[in-house]
Design a protein that fits this description.
The two termini are about 15 Å apart. The chain is built from eight helices and no strands. By secondary structure, it is mainly α. About 75% of the residues lie in helices and about 0% in strands. It has one domain (about 5-220). Helix 1 (about 5-35) packs antiparallel against helix 8, helix 6 (about 145-155) packs across helix 7 (about 160-180) and helix 7 (about 160-180) packs antiparallel against helix 8.
Length: about 220
């Protein structure tokens, strides 16, 4: 993070929160699509189902995200900044936004049938990608999943967007293996929509960076 004026910090915070809200809306869209939860939330949902804690999935999300923070520590070692522990705080905020988004959207769908599910899924992927782009561009504290991706990208000296897709896919594979091992309905939370999200979201983040990255950079850091 670079030095910013109070006004720039305010813009950064607002951009960050807007990104988290977009991400939460994307999760709500994917839930209503019924074609699988987005990759970032798929593993916590699977674990919650395996443990019979679906009513407390928010707690499971926090636990899984804390594990991601621990992985960041082992990857970065001395390069790990203690400020990254604040990811736990923003994970809690994200949980609130997910609850808000689900309450706002309810069971609404654009239209019925599989075609309607595909449209909802497409909207979810775009919204999630834009949300990731916003809060990463805010240059503040990353969410644990993105923090883990950024840690891997930093160690491998690769762009964030190029690492996000493999990381998302790895999380999906772990969730799917766990689903087959424990759940009677292994495709309850991980379906074609989850796979498509894992494959496409990172690429869309790249598109948003290409077309909007310079503008957000000026908003956050100035000329």
């Amino acid at each position: 993070m670079t030095k910013r004026t109070p006004a720039k910090w305010l813009i950064s915070v607002l951009m960050y929160c807007a990104g988290l809200l977009c991400l939460a809306l994307g999760v709500a869209f994917s839930a209503n699509a019924g074609l699988g939860i987005s990759p970032v939330n798929s593993l916590p949902y699977v674990i919650a189902s395996c443990l019979g804690l679906e009513a407390s999935v928010g707690t499971v999300v926090t636990a899984v995200f804390c594990f991601y923070i621990l992985l960041q520590f082992f990857i970065l070692k001395k390069e790990f900044s203690p400020v990254n522990v604040l990811q736990i705080l923003f994970s809690t905020l994200f949980g609130y936004f997910v609850t808000f988004a689900k309450g706002l959207l309810g069971s609404w769908r654009i239209m019925d049938g599989y075609a309607g599910s595909l449209v909802m899924l497409a909207a979810s992927i775009v919204i999630v990608a834009f949300g990731v782009f916003l809060y990463v561009s805010a240059d503040m504290i990353p969410m644990p999943m993105e923090g883990l991706t950024m840690a891997i990208a930093r160690k491998r000296k690769k762009p964030f967007a190029s690492v996000k897709t493999p990381v998302d896919c790895a999380v999906v594979v772990v969730g799917l293996l766990l689903s087959f091992a424990v759940l009677r309905d292994p495709f309850r939370w991980i379906r074609e929509g989850t796979v498509l999200s894992a494959l496409v979201t990172g690429r869309l983040v790249t598109v948003f960076r290409k077309h909007l990255g310079e503008r957000t950079e000026k908003l956050v850091h100035g000329e």
